[in-house]
């Protein structure tokens, strides 16, 4: 929010009104009375002024003396410091009245960037949308990650349900069960979603999606319409579920003590071994595997050390020297490099390259020449299933047409991507995908 | 253990070391003359690389395994994900940018200096827009600070999970930042700096990751930083300009910063309500847990850094840090917390920065349960896992600063464990 105009204008307007009122009062007074009292007043004022001036002069002299003393102390300290050749560091100064850097922000610029919404609804634009429409928008733009019913796909966040689980062993923290303010959902969806197409939702679409999320949490009916008008009235289930950081009272008070150094416990033993072993292959990343070892046969410890040396412990594994990862065939070409940048729009859902797996979308290795809808283990939409039955095969033309307007070209695709508008982006990303031909 | 047992164990260990010598770098102990010394080697005869062969140098290929790594199944997509600093293989305190952990919410963006704009608006007299050049014209400061993700060690609430200090403690880095104090920019815009106000900061990337910072902190030590370790920030660390919020959770260190808004209350964005809050056993949640409490860990030996040299002189090396100020002391236990020895600090710790500690021991070859315990200038002592769980239960995700235990067996292999 910008500083309110009223804060700037009201003091000025108030001052003017006061002056006008005074002028009218004075004009209405009896002239003689006025003259006497004004003379008396002036005498009193002169006396008061003289006394105040004396006091002020004394105070100023005292302050000047203080400053002089302070100045001399600083000078002496600086001289001493300089003589010793030590610390001359100082924090960065802040100039009185500023540095005159930067330029005034235009109102249009502030309007474009200042879109955050506060818990009391300040910052919300006008608009409205109901859960019924929200379901359609959600299915098109959100469901590929969050599931048709906001239940969450793969590892993506679940948005609905989980009520009364916050004190369970595995709390399910959803918009419905956990989020304390509805503004948070509106603000985040409007600004940061859909993932990979942030900032493209209209205000009305956002109201509709939020209404649908409330509906999928069984908090409203499907005809519920959310708008800037009724937004602030909506209270979240967990609005009182948060306390402000109280570690100082609960923890610091206990843990700021002199710690034990000797005989802190009679003995100790391993109660749990690492659940996962983590291999670190030369090409980067990790491979985790369950640790088969148990705590059986490990020594207990006392003040004198380990109880015994256990038999048959594993030898350390020698890690082979790492070789540089092979670059894709023509990674050097500029078009492929440009395509790699365009591909960032795709990679949240589609993996490519060594070890690429199906994610929200199928992997794209060896795409050209591959039958549509043919990657094992990926659940295709109906339109891609029929494309496979028809024997359609991906080539450059098909992919370019699809990526230009995914929903128009493959009506019914699950791919929540609005398309690439620039021909050079299409060429580049096709070249990039092609570089992973094999 | 009995005295009778000692000689045979020592003999066993010497035997083990001799076997290892053949395969590893034990040639220095070889029985006969070492051909690396007695024979002319290629590098002693032929010419090496000329200058400019790599205008910007990278680590030599023998160090290629010292890289950031992620654990794929922890997150839904590498775009909104995290990886880990290879702290097991680093020494000293400064983290090179190229291997400092990354955490992105919508991927790392390429933002050119020419395209950079920083807006200050809200409760200010003059809403302003700064260019990158403007930022470089304000008086600047240099400070070394650690940046730790609130989720560092988060997996370990549920017990010993991931076998490697890179994965249990690697969501941390420590760099020397150059930047302009946030208070300077607030003053420039004529901000309302009364202490009941907040500063809301957001990034230019698709996630925008907005966070609310109370005015007291904003005026204290927050930096608007444009260099790290002497050079420009790397893309993945927020090039060209990021926020540095010393001692506070990494999520608040907004990268690619584009806007600073002075507001009259916390915005309570997604990153300060849905995430970066912790649920306790009774179902209530704790919010605004900004400070990273004192913590330490032994980086070597550790699961990725087994002892390969057998018994004898051993350097136990580790890191300690506190969001409340300086580290004043670190104690190390070799028997799982029964006895503690005060470690040697590499140098007096900087405030809110990593401090290196050492315990130089003569390892007798017996198994160890290694632990480190940090203390900071407030007198706070790093808690055990049990102490933390007693306070917070096991459903927390963030702010796990428990004492870590490595079980080191007689062969020197280390493993992540929990102890009684």
Automatic annotation (TrEMBL), chain A:
Domain Cytochrome c: 129-217, 334-437
Secretion signal, residue range per the UniProt entry: 1-19
Coiled-coil portions: 36-77
GO molecular function, one term: heme binding
Annotated InterPro entries: Cyt_c-like_dom (IPR009056), Cyt_c-like_dom_sf (IPR036909), Cyt_c_1A/1B (IPR002327)
SUPFAM superfamilies in the record: Cytochrome c
Keywords: Coiled coil, Electron transport, Heme, Iron, Metal-binding, Signal, Transport
Protein name per Swiss-Prot or TrEMBL: Cytochrome c2
Organism: Thalassobacter stenotrophicus
Automatic annotation (TrEMBL), chain B:
One Gene Ontology MF term: molybdopterin cofactor binding
Cofactors (names): Mo-molybdopterin
Keywords on record: Metal-binding, Molybdenum, Oxidoreductase, Signal
GO biological process terms, semicolon-separated: sulfur compound metabolic process
Domain Moybdenum cofactor oxidoreductase dimerisation: 286-404
Signal peptide annotation: 1-30
Domain of life the protein comes from: Bacteria
Protein name per Swiss-Prot or TrEMBL: TMAO/DMSO reductase
Lineage: Bacteria, Pseudomonadati, Pseudomonadota, Alphaproteobacteria, Rhodobacterales
